[in-house]
Structure formats: C-alpha cells, structure tokens
C-alpha cells in the first residue's frame, strides 16, 4: 500500500514535471491543443516532433528536398527561401509561457487585463480615452487585427534600448559586398515600467518614443543621423523627423514618407524595422487567425554574433553568406494581414506576430512576407533570434541578433546583425537636435 | 618637399589598403579612418579671360589633385572625444598642362594666417591639420572646442545662414560635389548647445540654445591666384596694387541661435556678430604712381531665421524657409568712379525650398527631388554697384538680384551601387548652370564618380558678377577615384 502511494506520488510528480518543463506532447493528434488554447490557457506549445507525428526529430535539417513535412508551419516567404537554399535546424525544446518576458511586463499584463479601451484610430488607453496606457500587453486574447497590433505597439517590454551593429548586403552569389554600420537608441516616453520615471516622462506627454540612429561606417556616411519622434496617437500626430548630413553639416527636416524608402540602400525599408515601424494608422489589419508557426528559436545554443561584432565560427552558412543556419522551433503565432491605406511600395504584408504568452520582447512582429504592388511575393523578413546571455539574462528576456530581409525576386539579401541592450537608463534628451550634431562629423 | 609628400602619400596608401577594414584601431579607443582620392578635371570651356595677362591659349586641365585625408578619433568615454582631420594634398595641375601659368595652388598657406596649421607646404603640395577639436557631450550640454566648421541654415547650395566660416575658393571654387565641406575654412572657436528641459515651456518642444565664440581667428575668403583656371575676376588695375589691408585678425566673432518646435513646425532664430569674409576697397585720395587704396572687412550684424514643415501624404513634401537680414551691409557707391567708396544698405537674403522623396523606379531607392528659390533684396539698390569698377549694365544691383531657382534630383540604383544626379541652377535674368553626375560604389571602399558643369545664358554679356554665367568659361568634366577606409 505504501509502495502504491509512493508510486502515485511519483507518477503525479512526474506528470507535473512533464507539464512544467514543457516536455513534448504525446505523439497523438487528438492530444495536441489548438494554438488558441495554448495561448489562452497559457500551455506549453507542442513541438515540431509532436506536430509531425514524430517524423521530424530534434536537430534534423530541413531543406528543399524534405520541406514538405513541415511546409504547413512555414510562412510563404520561408518556403521560398528554402527553395533558394536556406536550411533550418529543427529544435524540439518547447518554450514555456512568459519565459522571455520581463517580470514587470507580465505583472502589469495580468493586473491591467480587461482595462484597455481603444479609440477609433487604434490608440489604446487605460479605462477611458485620454488616460495613457500604463504598460503590459493590453489584450491577452486579441479578437481582431487591431488588438493584435495594439499588443505590438503598447505591449513593449523595455523602457529604452541601444543597438550597435552592421547591415551586410549579400549578392545573389552569396557574397557580402557592402556594409553599413549604425547605432540606434530608442527611449520610451510613456508606458515606462522598469526605470524611473515610471509611466510618462514629465514634459514628454503625448510622445510614444524618441529615436536616434547614427551611421558609423562607411566614412562617406559616417555621422549621418536621424532623430524621430513618434507620438502616442500616431493617427492624430504624424512622426516628426530630422536628418543630420555630415557632408552638409546641417540638420534637415525629413518627410515621414521616407518610411517607404530603402534603409541605406538595403532591402529593408525604413518602415520595416521591428516588423512595422510605420504609423499603424496608415494600415488596415486583418487577423487571419492563430497558427503554429516555425520561427527561429528564442534561445540559441551559442552566441551567433559577439559584442565585438564578430561571427561565431560555429554558425553555419548556406549559399555562401546568404543564409545563417539557425535553429527553428514551433510557437503559436497570430497571422495578421496588413494592407496600406495609401500608395505604398508593398501591396500587402502578412505578419507573424508573437502571442502575449510567447512574446519576443524587442519585436512582437517576428516575421513577415511582403508582396509587391502586383501582389507577387517579394520579400521575407526574419529575425536572427536567440540572444539571452549577459545583459538580457539580467532582465530575463531574449532578443534577436538582428534580422534578415531576403528579396525573393532578385535573390539579394540584407542581413542586419547587431547586439541590443535594453534598459540602459537613457533620458529622452539623448534623441535631440543637440545629439544629432554631437554624434555627427 | 614635393617628393617627400608624394612618397609619404604613396607609402601610407599602400599601408592602408593592406589594412583596410571598417576602421583601423591604433590603440584602445583610438581609430584611424580616411580616404585616398585622385581627381582630374578636364576643361571643356574656354580660356579664362581673367588670366589673359599670364596665359595665351586655352588650358586642357583645370585641376589635377591627389588627396589623402585621415580622420583620427580618440574616444575614451561616451562623453569625451578628440578628433582631427588631416589632409595631404598634391596638386599636379600646372605640371600636366604647359599652357598654365605656374600659379600657387595653395594660397591659403600665408604666413599671416599661419594658424591654418599647415606644417608643410609649397605651391603645389601641402600637409595640414584641417580640423582639430575636442567634444564634451553631456546629457543636455554639448561643447566643441577647437578648429571647426560651424554650419547653420537649411538651404542646400546656398549660404544664407551658413556664414560663420569663410571659404577657400582657391582650388575648385564652389563646385565640389560635397558642396562646401572641403572648402569651408575651419576656425578656432568654442561652440556649445544646451537642450532646455521640455517641461519648462510645454508649448515649445525640442527647445535648445546654441552659441559660438571665435576669440580672434578671423580669416577672410581666399580667392584663386592669378593663373588659376578658377580665377573669378580680373586682377585689379595696377593703380590699385598693394593696398593697405585692415584685416580683422585678433578680433572676435560670436553668435547664437535658439531652436524650437511647435507641433509640426520647427525652426531657429539666429544672430551673428561677424566680419565680412570678402575684402571691400576704398580709395580716398588719388596719388601717383598708384592710388591709396584701403582694403577692409567691415563688421556686420546678421539676424536670421529658419522654418520647416513636413506636409503629410499625399503631398509628402518638406517645406523649408531660411532668411537673413543684415542692416548696413557694405556695397559700393555707384556715384563714385574712378574713386571707390563703400555704401551701406540693408540687405535681405531669402530662400524657400521644397523637398520630396518619390518612388519612381519600383524596387529601387526613392528619388530625391528638391526645388529651391533664393533671392537677395537690397535697399536703395539703384544707388549701389557690385564691384569697384564702372557703373554699367554689368555692375548693377537690381531690386531682385541673384534670384535663383535650383532643381536638384538624385536617384540611387542597385542598393546604392550606382547614383545618378543632376543639379540645375537657373536665374530668370538669363543664366543657368547644368551639373549632371554619376557615381559608382561597388563595395565598401572604392568610389568612382564623374561630374560635368555647363554654364550658359545671355544675361549681362556674361559679365555681371551677380549672374552665374559670369563663369561661362568654366565648362568642365571631373572624374574622381576614391578609396575610403
């Protein structure tokens, strides 16, 4: 009897451990929960091994020849990338809910649940229109595209960040032929959760964030900077932007339509940063649904890109330097179709947005397919996920080492590799006219 | 000296190519960057009429120069930086074209203004410390102390509020693709900017004040020497030779501006206490064998402002205004000749610009389109003339003189590997300049570019100094090869 009791305890303990550690679901279709269930009940998601009935194992490499096994979990752009030579390493260690969220963001998400109100243009307020949202994801179970995008915009985990990195232009032969290095600093003026002043920074009411970007290489562009103010309600107030040109040694006003222009000659537009940096008021969003999607894993087994901006020799590449071979894992994601309200270089973006329980704290829009004005698949945007050591470990989050944007029509690729450090304690004055000139040449 | 300079340039070039990467780290926090460039300009125009006294036939080469520009930066902390830009230049123009008079290609190297920091120079080679400053950058306060360029204003290709530093016209006049960057003569000064706390004046955002003080490094514009293909005016008559010059070396200049933003409108209010960068001559007494001519640089007060506004879609255009008002600006009295007398008159310089990025070629960068109008308005213009010469049609200051339209268009292709651009300047009086260019940047280091300049128009018999076609003889094609590291 005693043995029986002990066995029951053992079995119960093992079961709890099984659930808590996120061990794979039984390989049985009936027991696999839907993506909506995983999100709403805060469950551990199934692995690709579970979803494929054991056909795919941890460490398997997916390429053009065997892609069909996982095709239904891939974005259209990723399928085309694989056709063009990209290879994916399958990972089966399931991510646990809220594993990569700053503690305070999780607490505020739960504390403020049900208190978000949205105005007609998509701005989110706290309990009543006009009171700024204090922080946390406003919608734990978003019902439409606007609510999903509200989580992206108002569910930001960090109070500021600093990136330092390099854009690598890779030609269709897979050779890196040009580099542009830059630093970005972005400071939240509201929804501050971790660093004082909390909430809204006095004097900056009505501003969402301030950003300063400065090119550090090549010499010809060194010191070229951009200072942008994004407003809390970007439908009422469009962005204000200024550029400093080291050749002219002057700060000049820029038009917000430069969101559609290429970033430094790369495949990214200025508005592609963090998935969609353009004012959301310029877009319509349609929620297609929640789906299990393969994305680059949030915790990589080794550091891909060092603080000294050097690649780890363990990182493998395919098609020359065109594709970094990363580990990919299954997560439930919202698929949102975004169409621009005005004339645009894209006719549509299909975005794969992290769910509130499995967010990627820097950019909830983890991947997107971009379509050209004729409606043909044009580009695929994807993060180099996986950084969680060092500064990130302190804050309990993971961040990407950048992104790649593949032009699927010309086979040209832009890889933006960087290191990102959040919550450095930057004041809003760090993004200012003074700073543009000071950082310039 | 020349050989030593050349050998140094070649040796350094070989060394740098071997070491080329993002920046060369010389020590902790100490970096070397730079470029090596050769530029050659072919003369498609005519013999410069201002050189008739020393040149018989048209020259074919307007300029041939080799540059090594190095930028050294020491940044031990985020808030402190020491920066220097050194230039090693070898000018071969007179060696390559026998038609040219052997002029001094580096007239800026004068003993009087020795603080230009040209430790080595002769008439066709120079080594100089072009800029040298330290930066102290704190949260709200930024200081730059040293030899530097101070640039205000928002107009491209116009100097309405960009008036602090003088210009070195002596080698390629104002025709470099980098606009004034390589000809704006740096001055020893202190410059500071302070960002005012936003909560202090809630209705004014991005408020800042900026000031500069030049304790005495007052340098005039430097014009090309006689014989230089870019000489813009004839040598003065022999009677005016060897004028007595009252320069402003040792006196001080200062200025300040206040920047702000109200909603989507941003702008500045500026004031500067300066000395004219070009010399003004006065001749009180007619003597023999030459006249007693005094050359001076009058003090001027300049009041200015800029404004800008970004219009949203579908217009998506930035509108910029820049203006300055200079009371009692020096001109020449048109009632005095053959003597010379300065007459002061209130003068306005105004400019308005429109700029738009437009998607023209699908998949490529946006085309940058700029349209700009600038005008100079002079009070009592009918009593003034531009130069000390006789008052005639070619030396009048009209009510709206020098009104100029600038149309600038540029387009990058293939991830900025190729760039085509064209600048057209047009003066309704009947003068124009067309300036097309093409640039090829295949990678991180090499840049090849080619530019052309064509001048034309019938205004004022090509002779009014306020009119662009006064430089009708300067049609040219320039090619450059640059290696940056």
UniProtKB/TrEMBL annotation, chain A:
Highest taxon, organism lineage: Bacteria
> What CDD domains does this protein map onto?
LolA_like
Q: Which InterPro entries match?
A: DUF1329
Q: What's the protein called, per UniProt?
A: DUF1329 domain-containing protein
State the organism of origin.
uncultured Desulfobacterium sp
Lineage at the top is: Bacteria, Pseudomonadati, Thermodesulfobacteriota, Desulfobacteria, Desulfobacterales
TrEMBL record, chain B:
InterPro entries the record matches = DUF1302
Task: Please provide an example of a Pfam family that matches this protein in its UniProt record.
Answer: DUF1302
Which residues belong to the signal peptide in this entry? 1-22
Organism superkingdom? Bacteria
Query: What does the UniProt keyword field contain?
Result: Signal
Protein name according to UniProt: Uncharacterized protein
């Amino acid at each position: 009897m005693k043995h029986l009791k002990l066995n029951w305890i053992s079995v119960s303990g093992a079961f709890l451990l099984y659930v808590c550690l996120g061990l794979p679901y039984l390989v049985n279709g009936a027991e696999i929960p839907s993506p909506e269930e995983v999100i709403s009940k805060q469950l551990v998601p199934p692995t690709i091994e579970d979803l494929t009935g054991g056909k795919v194992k941890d460490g398997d490499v997916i390429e053009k020849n065997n892609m069909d096994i996982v095709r239904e979990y891939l974005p259209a752009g990723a399928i085309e990338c694989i056709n063009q030579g990209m290879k994916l390493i399958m990972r089966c260690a399931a991510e646990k809910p809220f594993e990569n969220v700053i503690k305070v963001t999780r607490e505020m998400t739960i504390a403020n649940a049900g208190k978000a109100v949205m105005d007609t243009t998509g701005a989110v307020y706290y309990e009543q229109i006009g009171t700024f949202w204090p922080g946390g994801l406003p919608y734990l179970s978003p019902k439409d595209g606007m609510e999903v995008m509200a989580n992206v915009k108002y569910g930001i985990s960090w109070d500021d960040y600093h990136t330092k990195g390099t854009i690598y232009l890779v030609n269709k032969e897979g050779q890196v032929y040009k580099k542009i290095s830059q630093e970005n600093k972005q400071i939240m003026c509201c929804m501050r959760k971790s660093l004082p002043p909390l909430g809204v920074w006095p004097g900056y009411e009505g501003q969402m964030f301030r950003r300063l970007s400065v090119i550090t290489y090549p010499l010809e562009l060194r010191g070229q900077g951009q200072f942008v103010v994004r407003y809390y309600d970007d439908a009422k107030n469009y962005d204000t932007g200024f550029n400093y040109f080291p050749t002219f040694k002057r700060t000049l006003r820029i038009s917000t339509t430069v969101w559609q222009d290429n970033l430094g000659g790369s495949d990214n537009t200025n508005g592609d940063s963090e998935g969609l940096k353009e004012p959301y008021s310029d877009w319509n969003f349609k929620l297609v649904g929640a789906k299990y999607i393969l994305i680059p894993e949030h915790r990589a087994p080794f550091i891909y890109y060092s603080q000294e901006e050097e690649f780890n020799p363990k990182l493998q590449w395919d098609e020359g330097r065109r594709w970094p071979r990363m580990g990919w894992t299954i997560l439930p994601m919202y698929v949102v179709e975004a169409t621009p309200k005005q004339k645009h270089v894209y006719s549509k973006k299909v975005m794969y947005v992290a769910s509130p329980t499995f967010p990627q704290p820097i950019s909830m829009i983890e991947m997107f397919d971009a379509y050209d004005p004729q409606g043909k698949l044009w580009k695929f945007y994807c993060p180099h996920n996986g950084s969680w050591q060092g500064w990130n470990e302190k804050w309990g989050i993971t961040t990407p080492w950048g992104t790649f944007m593949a032009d699927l029509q010309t086979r040209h690729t832009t890889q933006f590799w960087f290191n990102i450090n959040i919550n450095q304690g930057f004041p809003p004055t760090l993004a200012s006219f003074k700073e543009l000139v000071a950082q310039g040449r | 000296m020349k050989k030593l300079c050349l050998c140094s340039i070649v040796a350094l070039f070989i060394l740098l190519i071997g070491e080329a990467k993002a920046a060369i780290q010389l020590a902790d926090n100490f970096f070397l960057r730079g470029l090596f460039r050769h530029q050659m300009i072919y003369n498609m125009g005519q013999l410069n009429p201002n050189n008739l006294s020393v040149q018989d036939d048209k020259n074919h080469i307007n300029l041939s120069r080799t540059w090594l520009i190095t930028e050294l930066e020491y940044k031990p902390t985020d808030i402190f930086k020491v920066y220097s830009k050194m230039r090693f230049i070898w000018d071969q123009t007179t060696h390559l074209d026998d038609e040219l008079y052997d002029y001094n290609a580096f007239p800026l190297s004068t003993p009087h203004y020795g603080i230009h920091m040209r430790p080595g120079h002769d008439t066709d080679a120079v080594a100089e410390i072009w800029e040298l400053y330290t930066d102290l950058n704190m949260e709200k306060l930024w200081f730059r102390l040293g030899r530097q360029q101070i640039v205000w204003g928002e107009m491209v290709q116009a100097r309405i509020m960009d008036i602090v530093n003088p210009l070195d016209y002596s080698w390629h006049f104002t025709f470099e693709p980098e606009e004034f960057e390589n000809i704006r003569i740096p001055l020893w000064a202190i410059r500071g900017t302070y960002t005012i706390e936003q909560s202090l004046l809630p209705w004014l955002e991005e408020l800042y004040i900026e000031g500069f003080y030049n304790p005495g490094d007052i340098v005039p514009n430097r014009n090309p020497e006689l014989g230089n293909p870019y000489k813009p005016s004839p040598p003065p008559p022999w009677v005016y030779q060897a004028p007595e010059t009252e320069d402003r070396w040792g006196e001080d200049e200062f200025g300040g501006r206040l920047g702000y933003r109200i909603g989507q409108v941003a702008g500045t209010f500026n004031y500067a206490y300066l000395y004219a960068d070009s010399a003004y001559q006065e001749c009180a007494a007619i003597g023999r064998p030459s006249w007693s001519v005094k050359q001076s640089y009058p003090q001027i007060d300049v009041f200015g402002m800029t404004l800008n506004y970004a219009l949203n879609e579908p217009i998506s255009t930035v509108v910029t205004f820049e203006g300055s008002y200079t009371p009692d600006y020096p001109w020449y009295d048109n009632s005095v000749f053959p003597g010379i007398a300065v007459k002061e008159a209130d003068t306005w310089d105004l400019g308005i610009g429109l700029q738009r990025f437009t998607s023209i070629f699908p998949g490529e960068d946006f085309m940058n389109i700029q349209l700009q109008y600038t005008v100079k308005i002079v009070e009592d213009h009918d009593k003034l003339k531009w130069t000390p010469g006789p008052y005639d049609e070619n030396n009048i200051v009209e009510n709206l003189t020098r009104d100029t339209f600038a149309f600038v268009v540029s387009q990058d292709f293939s991830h900025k590997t190729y760039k085509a651009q064209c600048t057209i300047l047009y003066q309704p009086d009947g003068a124009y300049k067309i300036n097309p260019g093409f640039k090829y940047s295949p990678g991180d280091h090499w840049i090849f570019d080619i530019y052309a300049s064509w001048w034309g128009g019938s205004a004022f018999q090509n002779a009014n100094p306020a009119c662009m076609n006064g430089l009708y003889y300067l049609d040219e094609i320039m090619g450059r090869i640059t290696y940056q590291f």
